[in-house]
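quick one, 220 residues, struct below
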Amino acid sequence: MRFAPRVLFPALLLMVLPAAAMAAGVSGMYVEARTADVYTGPCFANSEVGLVGNEAIMAWRIEAGGWDGVDLSGLSVLAVVRSDATLGDPYAESRATESVLIVDATADGSQRSALEGFARGMGGVLLADVARVEAADVTFDLRPNGAASVTAGNLAAVRTRPLDHRDHLCGNETVFYPPLAPTDGAVPGVAIEHTWQGPGLGATWKSPGKRSTFVGRFSR
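---
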């Protein structure tokens, strides 16, 4: 039997961070999309594991702070990941994971290097093998209801909506897979759009309509 952390409700998403978190070196918003349901029941998850969920997009919007002494306030970075196994599956260790980083085109040279270092630090082993680094104009929007929208030029796009009654298909859904990067209270949602059409990973994908996203905050 798999055990998963408790689902947090969207109302918690926009709560003011406590003083300790605000004092962290870097903080901001986080959005993630996968090609498998992350909020689901065991029957749905077991039908997907090993077959889908090998791809993901992780996106960070830095509101305050920096990395390695470089101020990154107002900048964004995305990590696009492709694995040979369902990402986050605690029972199957991935043997190969490649990634592409997309740094904010408005960043200068030192900020681009710091954004790469920040993403690697947050992504850990998932970003150990970066095949390519791209620069793109990044938009990052979070609505009061917890819906989010992230675009990186014409390379990647994620649009989410909060969960509602339509998304409880079997009645015992839970957060089956936790977020791929450290967050402060990320909540699951539905991908209205989840697209990667860039180079470097040997594949592109579109994966809308799945309960496959997280939206939350981060601090480090």
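The first helix runs from residue 19 to 22.
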